Amino acid sequence: MFRLAVVPPSLRGVVRRLVAYDEVSATVVRRRQAPTSTCTLVVGLADPLRVDGTGRAAFVGGLTDAAALTEFAGHQAGVQADLTPLGAFRLFGVALPGLVALDELDPELARLPGRLADLPSWSARLAAVVAVLEGRLATSGRGADAEVARAWWRLERSSGRTPVAALADEVGWSRRHLSRRFSAQVGLSPTTAGRVLRFRRAADLLVPPPGTPAVPSSVADVAAACGFADHAHLDREFAALAGCSPTAYRLGWSTVAVDPAEVEHG
Question: Residue ranges of the HTH araC/xylS-type domain (predicted)?
């Protein structure tokens, strides 16, 4: 089961996607998790998920330009919220460095797995996560600088193809000042964030996210659509950011992706 919930208006701009998941496998399921444009909140309710060899039950992951290998065998279930980087900054007050366990962030967040486990349905669990995030927003301090928010918006709109110099000119800051403030609030420099955004668009064209219709595309077509110089350029970016070729990435997910028949909406 993979339920895509509707993000309420109160969390739009903060939560990109809200999911409840429940899957069982008698054999080890390995997934190459390439860098994304979101921070990931995971509240696990079953067996720990191994991330690069370390068991993780409930955690938040900040933006990164490195791939991770997740593994599980047995039962995986929980709630996942994909957060915008600026939304995560509002919720937690910092740009998160890598993976951080919930009990290291806040006692209320640390209690979430136990609270969700006691609830009778996935709808109730999703609602509980929404309530916690809404509560944190209501009491959070200021968000990111308007200039940082504008620079991120421009980068995301262009899938990472806006030069840093153009971003700095648009917000009225020097490149150095923009890079320093952007890194502190987003978690990556503008240059690295742009690289990840462009890579992520290519990765999503090769392996569409659950609930998104697949559009058959060759690797060469994806390279052209995302502004890479050629197939070889895309190969180099995948080797650097995903640790494999685009073809190997697509093939790897072909056997472990969420079955479209198991995707629910609402």
Answer: 164-252
